[in-house]
Design brief:
Helix content: 25-40%
Shape: globular
Number of strands: 17
Radius of gyration: 20 Å
Structural class: alpha+beta
Protein name: D-alanine--D-alanine ligase
Keywords: ATP-binding, Cell shape, Cell wall biogenesis/degradation, Cytoplasm, Ligase, Magnesium, Manganese, Metal-binding, Nucleotide-binding, Peptidoglycan synthesis
CATH architecture of the largest domain: 2-Layer Sandwich
GO molecular function: ligase activity
Cofactor: Mn(2+); Mg(2+)
CATH superfamily of the largest domain: ATP-grasp fold, B domain
Number of helices: 10
Family: Belongs to the D-alanine--D-alanine ligase family.
Order of helices and strands: EHEEEEEEHHHEHEEHEEEEHEHEEHH
Largest sheet: 6 strands, antiparallel
Number of domains: 3
Distance between the termini: 22 Å
Length: about 350
């Protein structure tokens, strides 16, 4: 089952990711059923044509309610997925061996969906409940990474449910300096992120972030090259594997950073260098940090680790993404492609990793 869409602000990006996987997966080897989750949370039988889910001419794809709803297995001895159509009894669709959950953001990438699949005793691609939850919450993630001896940048958290007064804003600026990056703590795809160069703009940036998440994280701007590294879980108990790193270069001055538009709607304004032009020793350091971050959070299957590399070669972890963008143009598959693992092989490897691990506690 290729599962995508969902209730988060990254719904459309999840659909585009699914389009890439549906195009790449070997239909001679796998029987594929596409299931979309609408923004209202309905699970529906979806079109498995990859072209239905591409971003084209600025149009973002969307899962719509088809009135053919999907039910997961109802017990640990049950592998059958069923469909329910209006006015009809549930009908068997087939047994599902593994789910590829291509959801980004809350209600999909944050452990909630993973918990549902665990309850149904269904194997799935990617990290489990705890690692997914930690990877989604930038606050908890930084605490775990720092607690494991990895370097993270300075930050402050503005908790949900608390008004932020002028004194708090002043303390944030005094602690972190300017410029600042203000982010929803539990969102991705650069949604709700603002760069703040003037302290007077900080309240508006916090308000923009809280449109996506009541919990906000404020980070000090880090000086360095923005480098990413893909990680794949190891087979048969082997250590995780790291790709060659890639680098994001924002070339269009309309973008102050790698924001949503630069990622998905203005490809001409960004250069994705794969592999990144780094000395061999720095490449090895980035790969080591990426694997250590993967293991610190307890990831499984896959993750993309984003770091900053300073001029002196020091590597600072920015964040870890447990279900990175997976379109053919996304950094995660690009980095593995230049490492020697093409898109179709990468999809096959991830399914194999999911089938290899047991269900339940592990």
């Amino acid at each position: 089952m290729v599962l995508f869409g969902g209730r988060s602000g990254e719904h459309a990006i999840s659909c585009a990711t699914a389009g890439g996987v549906l195009r790449a997966i070997d239909r001679d080897r796998y029987d594929v059923v596409a299931v979309g989750i609408t923004r209202a949370g309905q699970w529906v039988l979806a079109d498995d044509d990859p072209d239905r889910w591409v971003i084209r001419d600025g149009r973002l794809p969307e899962v719509e309610d088809t009135a053919t709803h999907v039910l997961l297995p109802q017990g640990t001895a049950d592998r059958e997925v069923r469909v329910v159509r209006d006015g009809e009894l549930a009908a068997p669709l087939g047994a599902v061996d593994v789910v590829f959950p291509l959801l980004h953001g809350p209600f999909g990438e944050d452990g909630t969906l993973q918990g549902l699949l665990e309850l149904a005793d269904v194997r799935y691609v990617g990290s489990g409940v705890l690692a997914s939850a930690v990877g989604m919450d930038k606050h908890m993630m930084k605490l775990v990474l720092a607690g494991s001896g990895l370097t993270v940048g300075p930050f402050r958290v503005l908790p949900a449910g608390r008004e932020v007064d002028a004194a708090t804003y002043g303390a944030v600026v005094a602690d972190l300096g300017l410029p600042l990056f203000v982010k929803p703590a539990r969102a991705g795809s650069s949604l709700g992120i603002s760069r703040v160069d003037d302290a007077a703009d900080l309240p508006a940036a916090v308000a923009a972030a809280r449109e996506h998440d009541p919990k906000v994280i404020v980070e000090a701007a880090l000086v360095g090259r923005e480098i990413e590294c893909g990680v794949l879980g190891g087979r048969a108990g082997a250590s995780p594997r790291a790709s060659l790193p890639g680098e994001i270069l924002v070339t269009d001055t309309r973008h102050a950073f790698y924001d949503f538009e630069a990622k998905y709607l203005d490809e001409a304004g960004v250069t994705l260098a794969c592999p990144a032009d780094l000395p061999a020793d720095v490449v090895a350091r980035v790969q080591d940090v990426a694997v250590r971050a993967f293991e610190a959070v307890g990831c499984e299957g896959l993750a993309r680790v984003d770091v900053f590399v300073a001029d002196d070669g020091n590597v600072v972890v920015n964040e870890i993404n447990t279900m990175p963008g997976f379109t053919p143009y996304s950094m995660y598959p690009r980095m593995w492609d230049v490492t020697g693992v093409d898109y179709a092989t990468l999809v096959d490897e991830l399914v194999g990793l999911a089938l290899e691990r047991p269900t339940g506690l592990r």
